[in-house]
Q: What sequence folds into this?
């Protein structure tokens, strides 16, 4: 008799555990971590064509307002200029360091009142450390020391990545050369 009672108790316990296990809600995902899954720093070097430097130029004015031309950036905060670029990307701020890829895209000077631009570009990597591209877009209020633009996707090692890139003008020489430091923080990594 006692063994029947023990078997009944065992079955009842197992049955209750199964019911409780089935009714328990699945564990909820915790709130997404605010820490980046990947951080990188790169520099890109832009040498704008000025009519005399065609061998070294990495960017060119392809659109200008009626009062401008294609070799000198327009007055009034360069408003109306459209510039395309294919700039080397390096791991340090030396233009002559080996490039790890190219920054390819465009910027549009889009305000008369203040010195600002809108950027759309990709970092296309060709190094052994990284393969693929990272895509960026956003407003660039050039007078701010640091500016944030969106990381909106990528390919290869950076497939469908998202995050933020903080850009800072690291150096400039008149209106012919500038170097940007780009601190990339990726929050979605596949």
A:
């Amino acid at each position: 008799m006692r063994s029947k009672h023990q078997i009944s108790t065992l079955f009842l316990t197992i049955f209750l555990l199964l019911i409780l296990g089935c009714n328990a809600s699945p564990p909820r995902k915790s709130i997404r971590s605010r820490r980046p899954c990947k951080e990188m720093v790169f520099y890109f070097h832009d040498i704008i064509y000025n009519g005399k430097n065609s061998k070294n130029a990495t960017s060119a004015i392809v659109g200008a307002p009626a009062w401008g031309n294609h070799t000198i950036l327009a007055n009034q905060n360069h408003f109306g200029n459209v510039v395309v670029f294919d700039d080397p990307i390096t791991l340090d701020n030396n233009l002559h360091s080996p490039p790890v890829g190219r920054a390819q895209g465009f910027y549009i000077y889009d305000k008369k009142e203040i010195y600002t631009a809108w950027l759309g570009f990709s970092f296309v990597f060709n190094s052994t450390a990284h393969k693929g591209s990272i895509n960026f877009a956003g407003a660039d209020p050039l007078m701010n020391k640091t500016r944030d633009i969106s990381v909106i996707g990528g390919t290869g090692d950076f497939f469908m990545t998202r995050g933020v890139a903080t850009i800072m003008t690291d150096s400039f020489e008149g209106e012919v050369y500038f170097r940007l430091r780009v601190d990339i923080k990726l929050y979605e990594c596949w």
Notes: Strands lie at 38-47, 59-63, 82-90, 101-109, 117-126, 131-140, 146-156, 162-173, 177-188. The longest strand covers residues 162-173. The helical segments are 2-23. The CA atoms of residues 118 and 139 lie 4 Å apart.
